[in-house]
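S.,

Sequence below, as promised.
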Amino acid sequence: MSGTHPHAEPHAEPAAESEPERGGLRFLRDLVIIVVVALLASFLVKAYLVRSFYIPSASMQNTLLVGDRVLVNELVPGVVPLQRGDVVVFQDPGGWLGMGQGDDLIKRVIGLPGDTVSCCDAEGRLSVNGHAVDEPYVVLERGSDRVAGKDFEITVPEGRIWVMGDNRYDSADSRVHGTVPVDDVVGRAFVTTWPVSRWSVLSRYGDEWDRVPTP
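The prediction came back faster than expected:
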């Protein structure tokens, strides 16, 4: 008696993905890649290129007010050189800040290594390497045209900078504490980001500072 052989069922072919499905998957894949790359780029920028700093004091008024936030380019001075007129954030070299006041300060670069900075001439201006500098950002004492209360003259040592606050009569800067090591500079502040009403690019007043001769 011959047995019956079961018929083999034909293999079912998998349904081909429709074009819309493939397109949707590609879109999701690309979206994930874009988000990951954007997050990574944001992290790298914040960690290595740009940082945000809060302004805690009035020493840079009226350029910067208490409560402002600025973005700082950390490629300065490691990759991009410092320039006179730059507004820079630097770590406390020691003794500039009291307990609980943080570790960073912000001032304007007045003298680079080798520069001779002196004040004041007959018109109340400071001079760098013999060139009198007009500083429209300086807050003067009422009734005075001098950008500093006391005369001084200093030659900036190699590897250091001379910094001053724009609010000259309310700034404990290099006149009080001396020069700042270039190695302590965190970066150059280039824009005020907060509050929104104060958004502005921070100028170094290059038209004036670029006239200063090299020492």
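The radius of gyration is 30 Å.

Coffee later?
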